[in-house]
Amino acid sequence: MSLVNTLKGLLGKGKVAAEQNADKINGAVDKAGTFIDGKTKGKYTDKIEKGKVAAKKIVPPQAGPGTTPGATPRTAPGTTNGTAPGNIPGTPRAAGPTPTDPGPKA
Protein backbone atom coordinates (compact mmCIF):
# COMPACT_ATOMS: atom_id res chain seq x y z
CA MET A 1 0.00 0.00 0.00
CA SER A 2 1.39 3.37 -0.96
CA LEU A 3 1.79 6.32 1.36
CA VAL A 4 -0.97 8.22 -0.47
CA ASN A 5 -3.45 5.39 0.02
CA THR A 6 -2.50 5.14 3.68
CA LEU A 7 -3.04 8.88 4.16
CA LYS A 8 -6.41 8.73 2.37
CA GLY A 9 -7.48 5.93 4.68
CA LEU A 10 -6.45 7.88 7.75
CA LEU A 11 -8.26 10.98 6.48
CA GLY A 12 -11.43 8.96 6.00
CA LYS A 13 -11.18 7.54 9.51
CA GLY A 14 -10.62 11.05 10.87
CA LYS A 15 -13.72 12.37 9.13
CA VAL A 16 -15.83 9.54 10.52
CA ALA A 17 -14.48 10.15 14.03
CA ALA A 18 -15.18 13.89 13.71
CA GLU A 19 -18.74 13.20 12.54
CA GLN A 20 -19.38 10.82 15.41
CA ASN A 21 -17.99 13.28 17.97
CA ALA A 22 -19.12 16.62 16.51
CA ASP A 23 -20.90 17.64 19.70
CA LYS A 24 -17.79 16.96 21.81
CA ILE A 25 -15.55 18.85 19.38
CA ASN A 26 -17.87 21.87 19.29
CA GLY A 27 -18.08 21.83 23.09
CA ALA A 28 -14.28 21.81 23.31
CA VAL A 29 -14.10 24.75 20.88
CA ASP A 30 -16.55 26.71 23.08
CA LYS A 31 -14.65 25.82 26.24
CA ALA A 32 -11.30 26.81 24.73
CA GLY A 33 -12.74 30.09 23.44
CA THR A 34 -14.17 30.93 26.86
CA PHE A 35 -10.85 30.10 28.52
CA ILE A 36 -8.86 32.26 26.10
CA ASP A 37 -11.37 35.11 26.40
CA GLY A 38 -11.00 34.98 30.18
CA LYS A 39 -7.20 35.00 30.00
CA THR A 40 -7.22 38.01 27.66
CA LYS A 41 -9.82 39.74 29.88
CA GLY A 42 -12.23 40.27 26.99
CA LYS A 43 -9.79 42.30 24.94
CA TYR A 44 -10.11 40.01 21.88
CA THR A 45 -13.68 38.74 22.31
CA ASP A 46 -14.73 39.56 18.73
CA LYS A 47 -11.71 37.78 17.23
CA ILE A 48 -12.16 34.78 19.50
CA GLU A 49 -15.82 34.48 18.47
CA LYS A 50 -14.85 34.60 14.78
CA GLY A 51 -12.30 31.87 15.40
CA LYS A 52 -14.87 29.72 17.19
CA VAL A 53 -17.33 30.10 14.31
CA ALA A 54 -14.62 29.22 11.77
CA ALA A 55 -13.56 26.17 13.76
CA LYS A 56 -17.15 24.95 14.05
CA LYS A 57 -17.67 25.30 10.29
CA ILE A 58 -14.82 22.86 9.68
CA VAL A 59 -16.33 20.14 11.89
CA PRO A 60 -18.70 18.00 9.81
CA PRO A 61 -22.26 17.83 11.14
CA GLN A 62 -23.01 14.86 13.34
CA ALA A 63 -24.41 11.96 11.35
CA GLY A 64 -28.03 11.29 12.21
CA PRO A 65 -29.68 7.90 12.56
CA GLY A 66 -29.94 6.02 9.29
CA THR A 67 -26.94 7.72 7.70
CA THR A 68 -23.63 6.15 6.95
CA PRO A 69 -20.77 7.84 8.85
CA GLY A 70 -18.23 9.26 6.44
CA ALA A 71 -20.68 9.36 3.55
CA THR A 72 -20.97 12.69 1.82
CA PRO A 73 -24.42 13.91 0.83
CA ARG A 74 -25.17 13.77 -2.87
CA THR A 75 -25.70 17.02 -4.72
CA ALA A 76 -26.70 17.78 -8.24
CA PRO A 77 -23.86 18.04 -10.77
CA GLY A 78 -22.34 21.53 -10.87
CA THR A 79 -23.68 22.46 -7.45
CA THR A 80 -22.11 22.96 -4.06
CA ASN A 81 -23.99 21.69 -1.01
CA GLY A 82 -27.25 21.75 -2.96
CA THR A 83 -26.95 25.36 -4.05
CA ALA A 84 -27.00 26.73 -7.56
CA PRO A 85 -23.68 26.73 -9.43
CA GLY A 86 -21.43 29.60 -8.40
CA ASN A 87 -23.39 30.43 -5.27
CA ILE A 88 -21.65 30.34 -1.92
CA PRO A 89 -23.89 29.04 0.89
CA GLY A 90 -24.85 31.73 3.36
CA THR A 91 -24.20 34.65 1.03
CA PRO A 92 -26.97 36.79 -0.42
CA ARG A 93 -27.71 36.32 -4.06
CA ALA A 94 -27.34 39.21 -6.48
CA ALA A 95 -30.54 40.55 -8.02
CA GLY A 96 -31.15 39.67 -11.63
CA PRO A 97 -32.21 36.79 -13.77
CA THR A 98 -31.73 33.30 -12.48
CA PRO A 99 -29.19 31.08 -14.27
CA THR A 100 -32.01 29.11 -15.92
CA ASP A 101 -33.84 32.25 -17.11
CA PRO A 102 -33.49 32.46 -20.92
CA GLY A 103 -33.78 36.26 -20.81
CA PRO A 104 -36.07 38.54 -22.80
CA LYS A 105 -38.00 37.00 -25.66
CA ALA A 106 -37.27 38.34 -29.15
Short note summarizing the structure:
The chain has 106 residues and is an all-alpha fold. Helices cover 47% and strands 0% of the residues.
Structure report:
By secondary structure, this protein is mostly helical. It has a domain at 3-58. It contains three helices and no strands. Helix 2 runs antiparallel to helix 3. The radius of gyration is 20 Å and the shape is flat.
Describe this protein with a few key phrases.
mainly alpha; 3 helices
Low-confidence stretches: none
Kindly name the structural category.
mainly alpha
Q: What is the beta-strand fraction? A: under 5%
Largest sheet: none
Termini separation: 61 Å
Radius of gyration: 20 Å
Quick one: how many beta strands? Answer: 0
The overall pLDDT, averaged over residues, is: 75
How would the global form be characterised? flat
Element-level helix/strand string: HHH
Helical content (DSSP H or I, runs of 4+): 40-55%
Question: How many alpha or pi helices?
Answer: 3
List the helices and strands and how they pair.
Layout: H1 3-20, H2 22-39, H3 45-58
Helix pairs in contact: 2-3
